[in-house]
Write a structure and sequence with these properties.
Elements: E1 3-4, E2 12-17, E3 20-25, H1 39-62, E4 65-66, H2 68-89, E5 95-101, E6 109-110, E7 117-120, E8 128-136, E9 142-159, E10 174-180, E11 199-200, E12 215-216, E13 219-221, E14 226-233, E15 236-244, E16 248-249, E17 253-258, E18 264-271, E19 274-278
Parallel strand pairs: 14-19
Antiparallel strand pairs: 1-7, 2-3, 3-5, 4-6, 5-9, 7-8, 8-9, 9-10, 11-12, 13-16, 14-15, 15-17, 17-18, 18-19
Length: 279
């Protein structure tokens, strides 16, 4: 749903990067942890933004046009509000930086006789590369699409040394570091426990972010291993010898031959060399 969101004061740093200049708008350097915006906070945010927009809009009206600076301010204000709300409602811990790309300084849109509205264009969440649709719904309507990027920094699991395929991750192999996760399409891990003890299935380089696609549960039982089959029912337990007919990791179901009865059964792997069947 479009939001009418005027300009807020911003800190601008011009830097030459990529194919041209970019305006870096650095917001909220404090970590946001399970924060929800109160109605009073939102009202203050909108009121401050409205006052700043009126000042900028006054300059634009002198030439009866809407300047690129106004469009950038509306975009920045909308994104700041939207990202804050996203972090609060999704209970996401992290800090963010908003980068609004520079518009053509020659751009001159007609003056809008109503408040400008802003909305995300084809983006399910306000993180990573986004496009904001700034629209005038006044007597002479127009629309401008403003590209931006929201950098979301979170503490994630990274490797401290290169790791080869089939290596088992130990506590000394990984470390938590702050990284931009806005463009991570394959996800990430936010706890060392999610990585330690897992098997590497794709080689990694030093300081690389570990994703779920890099890891796999190691096999606790291999085909042909002699295993102990446990059958439990309440406080009663029966143990018998068996042979694994397939590989399996923790809590995976595999086929096992009962060496006493020669029957083939299905059992869950509960530990190295141990499987369990319900009674």
């Amino acid at each position: 749903m479009p939001h009418s969101f005027p300009k807020r004061p911003i800190t601008r740093h011009l830097s030459a990067s990529g194919t041209g200049l970019a305006i870096y708008l650095v917001m909220n350097r404090q970590t946001t942890v399970f924060r929800r915006l109160t109605s009073a906070t939102r009202s203050l945010l909108c009121a401050t933004a409205a006052l700043c927009l009126l000042s900028t809009a006054g300059l634009s009206r002198a030439d009866n046009v809407t300047l690129p600076e106004t469009l950038i301010g509306v975009t920045q204000g909308f994104l700041e509000f939207t990202v804050e709300d996203y972090l609060a409602t999704s209970q996401t811990a992290g800090r963010y930086e908003i980068e609004v790309k520079q518009l053509d300084p020659r751009l001159r849109m007609p003056h809008c006789d109503r408040d400008l509205t802003a909305s995300l264009e084809n983006s399910p969440r306000p993180v990573g590369r986004v496009t904001v649709k700034v629209r005038c719904e006044g007597s002479s309507p127009w629309t401008v699409f403003v590209p931006a990027q929201v950098h979301l920094f979170r503490t994630v699991v990274t490797v401290v040394r290169p790791m080869k395929r089939d290596a088992i991750v130990t506590e000394g192999d990984v470390m938590l570091r702050e990284r931009d996760v806005g463009l991570l399409g394959q996800g990430f891990l936010d706890s060392l426990d999610q990585a330690v003890g897992q098997k590497i299935v794709r080689p990694t380089v030093i300081d690389q972010i570990l994703t779920p696609t890099h890891l796999q549960q190691p096999e606790m039982v291999r085909k042909g291993d002699q295993v102990v089959i446990s059958a439990r029912s309440g406080s009663m337990s029966v143990r018998m010898p068996g042979e694994a007919l397939s590989d399996g990791g923790f809590n995976q179901q595999i086929r096992v031959k009962n060496l006493n009865s020669q029957r083939v059964i299905k059992a869950n792997v509960v530990a190295p060399g141990q499987v369990e069947v319900p009674m």
